[in-house]
Amino acid sequence: MEVAPETGQRDEVDEIVDQWRQQRPDVSPEPIGVFGRIVRLNIAQRAMLSTVHERHGLTLAAFDVLANLRRSGEPHRKTAGELAESSLLTSGGITFRLDKMEADGLIRRTRSQGDRRVVYAELTELGLAKIDAAFADHLATEERMLELLDPQERAQLVSLMRKLGASIAHSARPAEPSS
């Protein structure tokens, strides 16, 4: 199906919703209109950004860790536990990534002066330069992905996505027992 995204014409998700309406008229497939598009957009966005990250010699996971350290501010360091918490990965998953990034010279591990049991991962000069270059390219790519939306539409989309996030969180709460 030909799609003209700039005009908001029908897309493949509309076709899926129509098929479900025809095959199961007893249920409303409307949520697919939202969540089907979220899934498709996520797949497309990740594919485009993977290309950007690979151009800088990074995986998505390495980019995530380096960006996490970079946005933490000087001295650009966190413990594996702090990285895991702020990136939603396990500390074991972080440790594996840190080992590779340390071998590549992007981070170094340092021990806390106050408690030698605490080990930090911190950006090296190479890591800082790499994440700064990759992040600029990352943002430019995301900007291109949004170019058909004007500033008002972007703000509206952000607001609606924030509200959707709250709605999902609300729906995940246990239902109150009926009396």
Automatic annotation (TrEMBL):
Residues 31-166 form the HTH marR-type domain. SUPFAM superfamilies: Winged helix' DNA-binding domain (SSF46785). It comes from the Bacteria. InterPro entries: HTH_MarR-typ, MarR/SlyA-like, WH-like_DNA-bd_sf, WH_DNA-bd_sf. This is MarR family transcriptional regulator.
